């Protein structure tokens, strides 16, 4: 019987490795950017076409490579960063496995031009599917230029599983932002399909955050800094007032390497305890400097997971440092013990001579024991229409009770959750609930959740028929988003217009909102805030609930556009709200699946009164 175990050909082995290392275009972008950083570049340009499917090009001014190194870098396990096993415990470079370039070359068409600063001429290498097709000398600038074309051209199954261009581009932006944040002293630029997305000059960390996320982030940042014998911690956290409902602005870096660590994230969240609701996430960009011998980065192919020698101590340091910054920079609620708040509303700006002291008037002839036969008989004969008779001195007017008409209650259908609202009178409870009498007792409706359900079903119809009406704003509002949110908004623009928004692109990362959906009403609408909340709500629905794009948009706008608890409603408004609620397909449950309507039976009320 012949032997059946044999070595895989290099091309096949590289394709297998590529499945772990290069999962999508963003993975290749990450590996190439980190190689440029390791090469000592202080100027890196990224050019992307068709969200990386057609072209990914990196141009840097790093150290470059010799002819031999240029050819060797595409071999598996070929690296300049690790020479012996002990080096794995002293890693400070981004790359060290020696798999990225071989994996990329196995599934794409690669052209690389490179030249060392001391050389007069460089090298050009072309590779297709792990096979070198051309190598020749070339005149090029110092540094390295790598062009990756037609990613996954020879693995069609992987290419078919790629998402749409907007989705893949957002993943590229995520990887670009992480590398750019970790190295603020390096110039970065990003172009997509001929449009400049980022142009990041050299600067400090705070400047880099502002350049990446927008000028309005300048006032949101609070510095964090702590030096211990275990770790050195520095960076910024966001003020609680600017926390968002979605994750995405939380960044941990260990020795300048971006990592994902739920345990340390819990440390930061604990520091914000009692300052943020459970479903809000603060911004943070935190850098940990630690002895490489006390961590293990060789855990996962993407190198975003790290094992620590003393994880609990790092957790405690992280939590206390963030808490101290919150207190030091006065961003937590404080009490002023020097001010007596009980008298704060009694301060007046009138002159002393204009203040009239209060006086008390009374009737010295009043006898509380004197009987009034007319008033007594009036009370006994008609308790509902009782009216106190005023005394000669008008003392009785203090107890005057105005006669209120008795509202006749109308009947309801057999299903007591369906109301006949003709002449129906409702009562609003604490500006949050609508209460009505039904045959069996009381019915209580949550006004905010009811309005959310109405808007949600209405917006779903608009997304289907593309006929959402728009109410034009008196003054168009300009909205500047960060690059990631802008790409998301562009991909949703047609659907957003279907909902009733009149919005268009207006330059780099900027939109102009000229109208909002008529369904949201016209009072006190902040177009900028509404649109930003729409994008945030959409991302939250996509992350947490994995809903479709259509449902996520309708849900987000309904939640942000609905009347809020605390809004006073008139009788006609309550009638309309109830009518529209029971015209919905699912009137009993909110868009979050919670009950909108609760009934309290007479039996339950009797039990409360121990009858």
Give the CATH class of the largest domain: Alpha Beta
Uncertain spans: 334-347, 373-423
With strands numbered from the N-terminus, the spatial order across the biggest sheet is 5-4-3-6-2-1-7-8
Structural class: alpha+beta
- Indicate the percent of residues in helices: 25-40%
- What's the name of the CATH homologous superfamily of the largest domain? Histidine kinase-like ATPase, C-terminal domain
Overall, the morphology is elongated
**Quaternary status:** single chain
User: How many domain modules?
Assistant: 3
The CATH architecture classification of the largest domain is 2-Layer Sandwich
Tell me the distance between the termini.
92 Å
Radius of gyration: 34 Å
State the major sheet.
8 strands, mixed
Query: How many strands appear in the DSSP assignment?
Result: 22
Number of helices: 16
Q: If you consult CATH, what is the topology of the largest domain?
A: Heat Shock Protein 90
Mean pLDDT across residues: 81
β-strand percent reads: 15-25%
Pfam families: DNA_mis_repair, HATPase_c_3, MutL_C
Family: Belongs to the DNA mismatch repair MutL/HexB family.
Keywords: DNA damage, DNA repair
Protein name: DNA mismatch repair protein MutL
